UniProtKB/TrEMBL annotation:
Coiled coil region boundaries: none
InterPro entries: DExx_box_DNA_helicase_dom_sf, DNA_helicase_UvrD/REP, P-loop_NTPase, UvrD-like_ATP-bd
Tagged with keyword NAD: no
Source domain of life: Bacteria
Positions of the UniProt region annotated as Disordered: 395-480
MF (Gene Ontology): 3'-5' DNA helicase activity; ATP binding; DNA binding; hydrolase activity
Alphabetical UniProt keywords: ATP-binding, DNA-binding, Helicase, Hydrolase, Nucleotide-binding
Protein name per Swiss-Prot or TrEMBL: UvrD-like helicase ATP-binding domain-containing protein
GO biological process: recombinational repair
Domain UvrD-like helicase ATP-binding stretches: 13-284
Biased composition annotated in UniProt, kind: Polar residues: 469-480
Pfam families membership: UvrD-helicase
Cross-referenced PROSITE patterns: UVRD_HELICASE_ATP_BIND (PS51198)
Origin species: Streptomyces pactum
Length: 480
């Protein structure tokens, strides 16, 4: 292991499970197959940190995820490990990366620059464009055809076979693409499709992208569809080092063309190391065995050593229609509540939205059981909301997982002093180079008394507090 790693990163690597450490420090392409609760995020962040620490300071790392929340968490955790890479790190969603790091800077290389007044259409606008394209191509306008066209669009972009589709369908896809251009719009799928086309066509774009980001770390790879997988293969052929992390046993975006076979194909390549994280830090042995039973095969997952809570899996049968299932659920909830289980410790999961969810929420509320249903409550966005959320998280959980924070002497020697104490030091700050406030148009000038007040009032916890009641006293109802 290199001797000049930041102390916090070196300590974190030493604290990892040997398989996690191997995933983080491998010197070439690697596919990490991480089962549930395997510490995937911790290993991924350590991998990004290791690549940043061992790569020239003039080059960077692209850490691609599917959600802005996951991208932000990666950055925060890296700061906790003593890494403040600035522009060397692009921790963002795959679509945002395609837009800001491929299409905008390199579109002119192939004579296809993005319009200055580019807009991103919402779901309703995209639906209208699809319906127009279908109608003008001689197809019936209905949701099934729309879904088929969206799937075909991905296959065409990835260069996969489409011979089984009648000619009206490819015609409708081409018409939809033209309608997007006519309206100076770019939907999310077009971001990846046009980025793939650009990289395939422009050698200069490939070379410049590899020069800036020689390493790509892709999270939740099993949720990549054919276009994004083709994009990764194009980058791989251009010389980018790829780290793919995912679980081939779970796919959330199958309706968008995602398939675990792309992760499996990548892990089976001769130029990739295949590594499986088998320790489950989240579940007991009974739950792990139940998971193997559902999969129909033993993946070799096991509970963390020293865990004596096996957990329990109880199968309850409910005869009849959906309303009968909902009534059975209410019966189970009442039994749990009567035996002292706090409502906030109960989660009711369902396969998908629809009649079952409607029946569940109706029955639970009719029984006067307090319920915090999926997406019922939304917190505002912006720096202030993030500040409050960070304070609440720190109060409940203590410091972030990993080694203890560096001393003030170490921090002062390695980076400019921050005007804010932990955990706010990792946030974008006015007056500091490369800072950005994503939800404001101008950078406000903070008052010194405000900073001083934060400084005086903040006392970092010395130990993780005992578990406390969290959230509202309501069961949570949501998709798994």
């Amino acid at each position: 292991m290199p001797a000049l790693l930041p102390p916090a990163l070196a300590a974190e690597l030493g604290a990892l499970h040997p398989d996690q450490r191997a995933a983080a420090t491998h010197h070439a392409n690697i596919a990490v197959l991480a089962g549930p609760g395997a510490g995937k995020t911790r290993a991924l962040v350590a991998r990004v940190g290791y690549l940043l620490a061992t790569t020239s300071r003039h080059r960077g790392v692209a850490a691609l995820t599917y959600t802005e929340t996951a991208a932000h968490e990666t950055t925060v955790r890296l700061h906790h490990l003593g890494l403040h890479p600035g522009r060397r790190l692009s921790s963002t969603t795959v679509h945002a990366f395609c837009l800001h790091h491929i299409l905008r800077p390199y579109g002119r290389l192939i004579g296809d620059p993005l319009p200055a007044d580019l807009t991103i259409p919402d779901t309703s606008a995209c639906r209208q464009l699809w319906d127009t394209a279908a109608y003008e191509s001689g197809l019936d306008v209905n949701p099934n055809n729309r879904t088929t066209l969206e799937r075909l669009r991905r296959l065409i972009a990835a260069g996969e076979p489409i011979a089984d589709y009648p000619r009206q369908y490819p015609r409708a896809v081409r018409r939809y693409e033209q309608l997007l251009r006519d309206h100076d719009t770019l939907d999310f799928e077009a971001m990846t499709i046009r980025a793939l086309d650009l990289l395939r066509e422009s050698r200069t774009a490939r070379e410049q992208l590899v020069a800036r980001f020689p390493h790509f770390v892709v999270d939740e790879y099993q949720d990549l569809g054919p276009v994004l997988h083709a994009l990764v293969l194009t980058l791989l052929d251009a010389g980018v080092g790829i780290t793919a992390v995912g679980d081939p046993d779970q796919v959330l975006y199958a309706y968008q063309g995602a398939s675990p076979r792309y992760l499996t194909q990548l892990s089976n390549r001769p130029d990739f190391r295949r590594l499986r994280l088998r320790v489950n830090y989240r579940s007991g042995s009974a739950l792990i065995s139940a998971g193997h039973a559902v999969l129909g095969q033993d993946r070799g997952y096991h509970a963390a050593p020293g865990r004596d809570d096996a957990g329990a899996v109880t199968i309850l049968h409910a005869d009849g229609d959906i309303d009968s299932h909902a009534a059975r659920t209410v019966e189970v909830l009442n039994n749990r509540l009567a035996t002292g289980t706090p409502p906030e410790d109960i989660a009711v999961l369902y396969r998908s939205k629809g009649p079952l969810l409607d029946a569940l929420t109706t029955a639970i509320r009719a029984a006067q059981i307090p319920l915090d249903s999926e997406k019922q409550r939304r917190r505002p966005s912006g720096p202030l909301a993030d500040l409050i959320a960070a304070c609440a998280t720190r109060r409940l959980t203590g410091p972030l997982p990993g080694p203890p924070p560096q001393t003030s002497q170490h921090r002062a020697a390695e980076q400019p002093a921050s005007p804010l104490p932990e955990p706010f030091a990792s946030w974008p700050q006015p007056g500091i180079a490369n800072s950005s406030w994503p939800t404001t148009t101008t950078r406000p000038t903070p008052s010194a008394p405000c900073h001083d007040a934060w400084r005086r009032s903040w006392t970092p916890p010395t130990a993780k507090p005992q578990p406390t009641r969290r959230g509202s006293s309501s069961p949570h109802c949501g998709t798994p």
